[in-house]
From TrEMBL:
It comes from Hydrocarboniphaga effusa AP103. InterPro entries: 3-OHacyl-CoA_DH_NAD-bd (IPR006176), 3HC_DH_C (IPR006108), 6-PGluconate_DH-like_C_sf (IPR008927), ClpP/crotonase-like_dom_sf (IPR029045), Enoyl-CoA_hydra/iso (IPR001753), FA_oxidation_alpha_subunit (IPR050136), FadB (IPR012799), NAD(P)-bd_dom_sf (IPR036291). This is Multifunctional fatty acid oxidation complex subunit alpha. The keyword Oxidoreductase applies. GO terms for molecular function: 3-hydroxybutyryl-CoA epimerase activity; delta(3)-delta(2)-enoyl-CoA isomerase activity; enoyl-CoA hydratase activity; long-chain (3S)-3-hydroxyacyl-CoA dehydrogenase (NAD+) activity; NAD+ binding. GO terms for biological process: fatty acid beta-oxidation. Keywords: Fatty acid metabolism, Isomerase, Lipid degradation, Lipid metabolism, Lyase, Multifunctional enzyme, NAD, Oxidoreductase. The keyword Glycosyltransferase does not apply. The lineage of its organism: Bacteria, Pseudomonadati, Pseudomonadota, Gammaproteobacteria, Nevskiales. Residues 496-591 form the 3-hydroxyacyl-CoA dehydrogenase C-terminal domain. In the central section; belongs to the 3-hydroxyacyl-CoA dehydrogenase family. It comes from the Bacteria. One of its GO terms (cellular component) is fatty acid beta-oxidation multienzyme complex.
Amino acid sequence: MFEGQSIRVTKLDGGIAELCFDRQGDVINKFDKRTVEELAAAAAAIKADSSVKGLLVTSAKDVFIVGADITEFGKNFEMSEAELAAWAIHANQSFNAIEDLPVPSVVAINGFALGGGFEMCLSVDYRLMSAAAQIGFPEVKLGLIPGFGGTTRFPRLVGADNAIEWIAAGGQHKPEAALKVHAVDGVTPPEKLRESALKLLNSAIEGKFDWKARRAQKTGKLHLNPLEAAMVFETAKGLVAQQAGPNMPAPMTAVSVIQKAAGLGRDEALKIEAAGFAKVAKTTVADALIGIFLSDQLLKKKAKTVGKTGKPVKHSAVLGAGIMGGGIAYTSAVKGVPVTMKDIAPKQLDLGMSEANKLLSKEVERGKLKPAKAGGVLASIRPVLSYGEFKDIDAVVEAVTENPKIKKIVLAEAEAAVAPGTVIASNTSSISIDELATALKAPENFLGMHFFNPVHRMPLVEVIYGEKTSKEAIGTIVAYASAMGKTPIVVKNCPGFLVNRILFPYFFGFMGAIRDGADFVKIDKAMEKFGWPMGPAYLEDVVGIDTSHHVGEVLAAGYPDRMAPKDKSALDVMYENKRYGQKNGVGFYKYETDPKGKPKKIADPASYELIKSVQPNGQVEMSEEEIVDRHMLPMIIETVRCLDDGIVETPTEADMGLIYGVGFPAFRGGALKYADTVGLKTIIEKCAKYAHLGKLYEPTESMKKMAAEGKTFYSK
């Protein structure tokens, strides 16, 4: 009946037309311009055949449809808001054409149906879902709202409250949850999905189900009286605003769109949705979040290419069985790579195994792992006190104390124990890879593999190569990090590597602001309002004042022109007074345990007293703008320096390192993306304002040149 490159329509027995999504040359189905156009053509072909009695919608892939092709549709966001809204309305005609067919329809959801893929399912009368499938609206995670009818059809199907919960949160939902809210009409075992869908469709054809009433429900008004509407929407606004925060407009826009369209029929409601979609699509937030999505794909693709130059890691070893070592061992084992964990102290081995067991137990509690599977994972971590079993190890990760002398001794011992050619990596956060490599006979097999704490949560791994590191060693560790579910970024060796080298100018900006009289609590509030998950004072406490002090010294020695302190800082004062942060209960803040057993920060008057000694002019009021500029400018400049020095190859890797490594506000896209948003010319002007603060605020020549030429770090 119809044959396209993404869709085909076949006539089955009994007058049933089967519309099958089967994107040629791809392992998944997704909506691009071609697929949307083919959907309209397929609907026209079905409508033109008067012998068709019903429509079955299926997928020939393991997934149903993963959503819109953001790499293609993203280009549409260069349109004006009005043009973008018009495009959304036009695209919706394809979905309307399916919904308006004069016959009943059933969709068999065999795998992931997300975003536009789930919206396609909503245009059909009945939905059957495989027990292995998941559905949902992830659009808000890209700073968008559904644009193919999701905010119109879904509330009318499941109720406004359920629709708001699903759309504003952007999660994926399993069959049980979908059935509970009536997002689907049934769930079947995967092998019975097609048979059940055909049975349901034939029942609808025979008049056993009132498919016209179902369709009228989805295309009519949302049935809420004024009191119900006020309760639903006002309650939702409060909850969504609290969860989304002030910097993510899409969730609140979704609520507003559903509310405005509640009293309208489908076609008018879709116009409201299109306007809301266009509005959020033109925000810097959507631009940044879509950029992160594309950057993540780019990093994975690059890691796959680099990983091909390495050797497969089938069995690894971790040296040092503390919290960090246990976390690394768990992360490896849970992804299927067995680990030998070595330490010299039985108590440390117990600690490492306890950490892995604790993390596995949490996964079991959340229903992510079955107890038997968790037991198998734990059994694949082998604690040892000697190097006796190291001949069959493919890669070693050293995670002992951050002390160069101790690390060199351990690395040399490990090299002597493993087979020739085995790759050895150090989980150092600050010590030079070239310095550590002097302890090894084969430095070409050595490099850095810097995990971030907590290991099981933080997605980034810095893969740091030294002067003598081989490409095979880099490839091996990149592939291993990817196998662990991490995002590896390859970094050239330098003091602080990439992330700490950029983060510490931010901390130095913080110390300068305190020196000049700013209140550290107000600084934290301003930077959290900017979007950081925690302000710099709180972050210092979480990192550990002693750890931060040590890394600061490394960076001061490496970049004395801009990072060497001229005066005693607030960090020095905390360190001298053994206020190490959360680890000993007192730092900038003091910590008490909340009812859930987690540390709760409290502003400590003693901190203010201690800080007075490094505030020559006492406390002063500092505006939010000045606080933000004094923290962000040094970070932007140092990120550019890393790019200029070839520490990373691209702006994408620099920004993603900050987002995945230290929680840089995702909706701002990274330091360089933020600089693009503000404008380099404005950044240069701001730098001039703070030139008296020293070289930390001095823009690079490359920045000045780019500003003069009107260039940006990212092209459209």
